[in-house]
Amino acid sequence: KGKAVVGTVSGTSITFGTAATLPNNSMSSYFAVTFDSNVNKVVVVFRNEGGVGDKGMAVVGTVSGTNISFGNANGIFNNGDSLWICATFDSNSNKVVIGFFDNQNGGSKGVVGTVSGTSISFGTVVAWTGDATSHIACTFDSNSNKVVFVYRGGSNYGRSRVATVSNTA
Q1: 118 near 60, Cβ under 8 Å?
Q2: Which residues contact 128 (CB under 8 A, 6 or more apart)?
Q3: Minimal CB count within 10 Å: which of 6, 51, 78, 86?
Q4: Do residues 30 and 48 touch, judged by C-beta distance below 8 A?
Q5: Which residues have C-beta within 8 Å of that of residue 113, sequence separation ≥ 6?
Q6: pLDDT tens digits, 70-96
């Protein structure tokens, strides 16, 4: 089962609270975490290998002191086999942006998530390359208000894509 723990940094040391188990037997070898500063929530994005068909899912976490608690793992962003997942927070649009490789349907894709309370909902999944990709990472560039995806693409070359969030796409 997937777990999360809150760490507190003091100087050059770190201490940890009690580990919390992600809901619904969530577990994965592909996952990412981002912080939605608009609503002060943590979003854990993962490939659910817990018997629901390797779907791409997300769960919202609330930090209180040294503890974290989660809503239900009902945020499905991809019904297919989701690999090489990344997540970032776009502070311009106040949206979570997820990148992933859709191993079932092919191609790398992105989707925008909106956090409300302890739930997350998703807009339309958008393909950004049909290449076989891996090792996807993403970040938000606050100078240009763009999301940047970097990944290993065809012929094992490093590639990148720049995206702009517009509403939920």
Answers
A1: yes
A2: 99, 107, 108, 109, 110, 149, 161, 163
A3: 51
A4: no
A5: 43, 58, 75, 77, 95, 96, 97, 98, 120, 121, 122, 123
A6: 988 778 999 988 999 999 999 999 999
Q: Determine how many CB atoms are found less than 10 A away from the CB of residue 95.
A: 26
Q: How far apart are CA 33 and CA 65, in angstroms?
A: 19
Is residue 87 within 8 Å of residue 45, measured between CB atoms? yes
Both tokens of 29, joined, read: 């070898």
Residue 106 has pLDDT above 90, yes or no: no
Place of tokens 């809503």: 71
Main-chain dihedrals φ then ψ at residue 73, nearest 5 degrees:
-85, 65
Using CA of residue 96, residue 99, residue 100, residue 101, what is the dihedral sign? positive
